Amino acid sequence: MPAKVYSAAVIGIKAQPIEVEVDLGPGLHNFNIVGLADKAVNEAKDRVSSAIKNSGAVAPSRQNRKITVNLAPADLKKEGSVYDLAIAIGYLLCSNQIKNFSTKNKLFLGELALDGSLRPVAGVLPSVLMAKNKFEEVILPDKNAKEAAVVKGIKIIGCKDLKEVIEYLEGKKEIDPILEEDLENFIVENYSVDFSDVKGQKQAKRALEIAAAGGHNILMIGSPGSGKSMLAKALPSILPKMSLDEALEVTKIHSVCGLTSEDNPLIISRPYRSPHHTASKVALVGGGSWPKPG
Amino acid sequence: MDEFPEFNRDVLESLRQPLEEGEVTISRVQGSLTFPARFILVAAMNPCPCGYYGDPEKECHCSPGEILRYQKKVSGPLLDRIDIQVELPRVKYDDLKSEEKSESSVQIRERIEKTREIQKERFLSLNREIYTNSEMTSKEAEQFCQLEKEAESLLKKAIESFYLSARSYYKILKVARTIADLDNSEKIKSEHVAEALHYRIKTEN
User: Do the chains contact at B109 and A238, CB–CB below 8 Å?
Assistant: First the structure.
């Protein structure tokens, strides 16, 4: 019987659940990943094998069986290394190396290093937001835990390596779910220019105030040195603080681009972007053969 | 976006959809995705290539052709989508050296947060989630931007004299609504409309 473990794929900034099925069959050793997997996903074979071996279990390469991993739905392109953990757990389950546990209520995310440690991945926030109503627990790299903690109503289990995940699943180790974080704890307001730094230009300041108040777009026309750039830089300092919904949406986008980090999991100050005028269209609005935000 | 006319033409044109709809749809062979794109665009530019057209003290060295070409780089339709256009004159020496304290960001922000609260209240009845006046559709603008009689006739006059497009009309209406909110006024008065009109100088001329 194939083992079925759940992970998630991020498309754009939305996530959807992915069923990771692992099956063992008779035959010469062969390890195959199907489901429109890209190169990074395919390389999981080697990462997963080493990680399992270094976590004290028997690696796929040591067992003379045919191993098939299917990432369903099969017609959706799979990218990245996020499925490593789910594949490893799926393999351990179907080779009876880990006690049976409830797989239906858990979501697994994370890249595996050869030594078995869990590496952080991008796109965790949208995945956890999606998981909120479908799963009870998310098991992921501890370095991603803080980012996931802003989603309330789901258990976040952060682990440092595959061994820890196995021990947790078998009930041998207790891992406390990450404490839910409150938005207030992340407030970071560091603006380089204050409106009082700019002398005069009452008209322009008034116009910027209106723009900020109502969310209107604004064009400033003036000779060099009139203060346009300085005032533009000062605009974020008068914008109101973001609401939780706005912060989550902005963080989702940053998460997908791999721009969130362990120390700055939530984007709480309004993003200010000042592209150089040589920026390309793709850099500005997004694109790429697999569309990513600009 | 500083040096606005210096951006590549296709880059500027790609702003049209996000400015109008608040989202960006990217179509590729692999599929088509729509990303949210709600932002305040702050664009800055010189009045001409050398920068001094209209300056009371420094002379502009550009030919009329150069000035026209430069200003044309920001296409009509794109300019039309920018709600507020303001000119920054040269800062006088007296102002620069003045001891007079300019308002700090914190003080300005307080007013803006109050205005945002007014907008939040206003949009509670809607089915969708919007936070600012600029996000209103034309239908919503008609519903929420009640004009006083004088304001209405002023706007009507402006539409006729300047041949304002429907898009311009709604933009001016929404900016006037924000100005009225800043003034803590429930109805939009003629001075609010006047100020909103003032910020559309470039487009309508």
Answer: yes
Pair of tokens at residue B114: 């109050």
Q: Residue A226: closest CA among chain B residues belongs to which residue?
A: B90
Q: Which residues of B161-198 are buried (b: 16+ CB within 10 A; e: fewer)?
A: eeebeeebbbbbbbbbbbbbbbeeeeebbbbbbbbbbe
State how far the Cα of B105 lies from the Cα of B121, in Å rounded to an integer.
Answer: 24
Nearest to B175 among A214, A226, A290 (CB): A214
CB-neighbour burial class of residue A89 (10 A; exposed 0-12, middle 13-18, buried 19+): buried
Dist CA A232 CA B42 (whole Å): 7
Does an H or E element contain B116, and which? Answer: helix B105-122
Sequence letter at residue B33: L
Question: Per residue in A209-221, pLDDT tens?
Answer: 999 999 999 999 9
* Pair A269, A251: CB distance under 8 Å: no
Instruction: Say if the Cβ atoms of B182 and A213 lie within 8 Å.
Output: yes
**Partners of residue A217 in chain B, C-beta under 8 Å:** 19, 40-43, 81-84, 134
CB contact under 8 A, A203 and B92: no
Distance CA A245, CA A228 (A): 31
Inter-chain Cβ pairs, chain A and chain B, closer than 8 A? 246
Contact A87, A69 (CB under 8 A): yes
HSE-CB at A149 with a 13 A cutoff on CA atoms is: 24
Q: What is the pLDDT of residues A117-145, one digit of tens each?
A: 999 998 888 899 899 989 999 999 999 98
Residue to substitute from A16, A223, A248, interface B, most B β-carbons within 10 A: A223
| Token pair recorded at residue A293 | 């935000």
CA distance B58 to A278: 29
pLDDT at B118: 94
- Distances from the Cα of A259 to the Cα of A121, A126, A134, A151, B170, angstroms: 11, 13, 26, 18, 37
Q: Which of A134-148, A271-285, B32-46 has the highest mean pLDDT?
A: A134-148
CA distances from A210 to A63, A108, A132, B105, B142 (A): 69, 47, 38, 14, 20
**CA–CA dist A284, A279 (Å, integer):** 7
